[in-house]
Amino acid sequence: MRIAVIPARGGSKRIPRKNIRMFSGKPMIAWSIKAAIESQCFDEIIVSTDDDEIAETARKYGAVVPFMRPKELADDYASTVQVVKHALEWYESTGNKVDQLCCIYATAPFVDAKDISAGLELLIQEDADYAISITSFPFPIQRALTVSDSNRLNMFQPEHALTRSQDLEEAWHDVGQFYWGKRSAWREEKPFFTAASIGIPIPRYRAQDIDTEEDWVMAERLSAINEKG
Question: From the UniProt record, which GO molecular function terms apply (predicted)?
Answer without folding.
Answer: N-acylneuraminate cytidylyltransferase activity
